[in-house]
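Many groups now describe folds with learned vocabularies. In that spirit, our science desk offers one protein's residues alongside their backbone shape tokens.
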Amino acid sequence: MKKFKELAEAIGLFEDEHTFGGGVQFPSGTPREISATSDEGSYYIQRKSQLKRINAFLDAFSRKEYVDPRQAIAMLRAKMNITGLDFEFNKNTNFDDEGQNVFPVTRFGGTFGKSLDTPHDEFETTDGISDYNDGKGFSLVISSAPSANGVTKFNAKLVETTPAVMVVTSDDDEGDDED
């Protein structure tokens, strides 16, 4: 009888899922291909090993051509949500079909609340990354270009940026000026 460890290695149980472009699992000729997700936590993009994994996924995503670029970006957002990363993209988001688009990335939707230094009538919103990365956040840079056959080709990559902390004041403050 085989031991669990032998069986797990034989079937490639540990990080052996091959997900071409982060999609459906396909059988692979080599049993040791890995996906963008990892046991270490792909959302730790401040770690170079995890940033390489996410950028490898984005490279695989960029190798395809897409008929509807907005739908492709929406699909990319859903795939990145699986890893705990997010960027703002909806039907009202400006998207340049020919050129570069930059989307600030948040980890688990960012943070909202108060720190010890926040005044009582204000709130802080952060990206959830810069607090753990020496004040630097990340942005998803997507360059898009239409091809001759009517489809769109992307080039996507996560790059390090320096985000600003947004301070949100409460609605009660606006009425105080009228006294």
Summary: Residues 48-62 form the longest helix (15 residues). DSSP finds four helices and eight strands in the chain. The beta strands are 65-66, 85-87, 99-107, 111-113, 122-126, 137-146, 152-161, 166-169.
